[in-house]
Specification:
Strand content of chain B: under 5%
Shape of chain B: elongated
Radius of gyration of chain A: 23 Å
Helix content of chain A: 55-70%
CATH architecture of the largest domain in chain B: Up-down Bundle
Number of helices of chain A: 5
Distance between the termini of chain A: 72 Å
Structural class of chain A: mainly alpha
CATH topology of the largest domain in chain B: Four Helix Bundle (Hemerythrin (Met), subunit A)
Oligomer: heterodimer
Number of domains of chain B: 2
Chain lengths: 133, 286
């Protein structure tokens, strides 16, 4: 078990995609250059896409589209650049667990804030003449 | 099992680890736990953003026009490229390619400096036009491109009337240039104080509703907190990767010992990941 090197380590595959299994996919598996480069190209293309889509007013879809593209980029970074796709499942549990709690945090506070919308509207009506009635 | 305890041919194997895999796995778990705390740390700011944007969407839409999408997009590309070089550095370390490792670490640091340089240009411009956070918020006429304030409107009026630059219409006097000492320009009411802090005349576009104008500072408070905290992380990344670079130059990293490169790269990817969300949330609003 001790001091295995990158090219020798072939046995301990952790759910690696079939295409990389032949390289050996343990934790010391070096990702092929084409995969790293391809991921970067995809990230750049998605950046271009999000800038492009922001030039159009898509109304209620603006935020969901921008956030979907950002999330696809985040997954590319996490799964490939951060090796999560080949890493121990527990590390994925940690990071996606934390993102779940972020979702709970923002989600519950957003629900709470929604409860005070009428207070905010009332405040605006009292303070600003031009506020929508 | 191991009997060298950090000596001999494994100079970086700490004696409390059984072997190099044990050391690597412990370090990896440690960095992931740290990254979890980082995500939760930033989530407070993302939450503030979500709450204020849902309360005042029109404020965010308007304030975002003061941000230059071009710089934001360039910085996104710079960070994405640095993520590639960081990931590639891990590959180089795993394969024992020390020269390429040094090159990729240096490139990552270079990109980090590039990112901070662009941030400096952006911050400098914002401070120049008075788009400062919180109570320091005092926008000047140049603050919102396409939404000229009183000065520009008056200049246009003066030029039309052919009365020269000294005396404009009504109570508003127009400075000859934006750098002109601010105190010489008279302005109405509450704007005067804000005006004295800025360089040009205070921004006051009457076509923008007052409840939006008065709340624009909320956006810049959030903008500076989010990009500022992110920038601090980039600066920290420069320190960490500088340390890696010195170790790589000394030939410390081998295919059986590259944990620090891997863990630092994971940190760098998280910094990139935060920016992936910050860019559309701050720059691409309409």
């Amino acid at each position: 078990m001790s001091s295995t090197t990158a090219h020798e380590h072939g046995a301990a595959a952790h759910g690696a995609p079939a295409g990389h299994a032949d390289h050996g996919a343990g934790k010391h598996h070096a990702l092929p250059g084409w995969l790293l480069f391809g991921t970067w190209i995809a990230l750049m293309a998605l950046t271009g896409l999000t800038v492009f889509s922001a030039q159009y007013d898509l109304g209620a879809f603006d935020i969901p589209i921008a956030m979907t593209i950002a999330t696809i980029k985040a997954f590319l970074v996490m799964l490939i650049f951060m090796h999560l796709a080949w890493d121990k499942g527990f590390h994925s549990v940690l990071i996606f667990g934390s993102l779940f709690f972020v979702w709970l945090f923002i989600g519950f506070l957003a629900i709470d804030r929604g409860q005070y919308q009428s207070n905010k509207d009332q405040f605006d009506r009292n303070k600003y003449q031009s506020a929508p009635q | 099992m191991s009997n060298d305890h950090g000596h001999g041919d494994k100079p970086f194997l700490a004696h409390h680890f059984e072997d190099e895999d044990h050391q690597f796995d412990s370090g990896k778990l440690g960095i992931w736990v740290f990254l979890v705390t980082e995500i939760l740390f930033f989530s407070g700011l993302f939450c503030a953003y979500a709450i204020y944007r849902s309360m005042h969407p029109e404020v965010f839409v308007f304030a975002s026009t003061a941000l230059d999408t071009k710089w934001g997009a360039i910085n996104t590309c710079v960070l994405l490229f640095s993520s590639l070089t960081a990931a590639w550095a891990v590959r180089n370390a795993q394969l024992g390619q020390n020269k390429r490792l040094i090159m990729n670490l240096a490139l990552t640091i270079l990109c980090a400096f590039g990112f901070m340089g662009i941030k400096y240009i952006e911050y400098k411009h914002k401070f120049h036009v008075g788009l400062k956070p919180g109570t320091y918020y005092a926008p000047t006429d140049e603050a919102y491109p396409g939404h000229a304030g009183l000065k520009a409107q008056t200049v246009a009026f003066v030029a039309e009337e052919g009365q020269g630059q000294e005396h404009g219409a009504g109570e508003v006097q127009v400075p000859a240039a934006a750098e002109h000492p601010a105190g010489e320009v008279t302005q109405h009411g509450a704007e005067g104080e804000a005006h004295a802090k800025g360089h040009g005349a205070p921004w006051n576009d009457p076509t923008v509703p007052v409840e939006v104008r008065e709340r624009l500072k909320i956006f810049f408070g959030i903008y500076f907190c989010m990009t500022g905290l992110h920038g601090i992380h980039v600066l920290l990344g420069i320190v960490v990767f500088g340390w890696l670079l010195t170790r790589a130059i000394r030939g410390h990293f081998t295919p059986s010992y590259y944990g620090p490169v891997d863990f630092s790269a994971l940190y760098w990817h998280i910094v990139d990941l935060i920016w992936i969300y910050l860019f559309p949330l701050l720059y691409l609003i309409h």
